Amino acid sequence: MAAPKIAHAAYQGPNVLKDIFYGISMGLAAGFLWKIHHWNVQRKTKEFYEMLDRGEISVVVEDE
């Protein structure tokens, strides 16, 4: 009695275009997250120096 043929997924090797697409997508996502982080740090630094210029804060410890 012959066994029924079962369709198996055959490994066809790496899909270069798919791998390139995944790499570019992950690179863009990581770059975007890094850029958001950079904007946040830049905003905090700008706020610090604006407060320093307005005299709201000081980096010198006042003597009592």
UniProtKB/TrEMBL annotation:
One of its GO terms (cellular component) is mitochondrial inner membrane. Keywords: Membrane, Mitochondrion, Mitochondrion inner membrane, Transmembrane, Transmembrane helix. It is found in: Mitochondrion inner membrane. InterPro entries: COX5C. It comes from Ziziphus jujuba (Chinese jujube). Belongs to the cytochrome c oxidase subunit 5C family. This protein is one of the nuclear-coded polypeptide chains of cytochrome c oxidase, the terminal oxidase in mitochondrial electron transport. The chain crosses the membrane at residues 20-36. It comes from the Eukaryota. This is Probable cytochrome c oxidase subunit 5C-1.
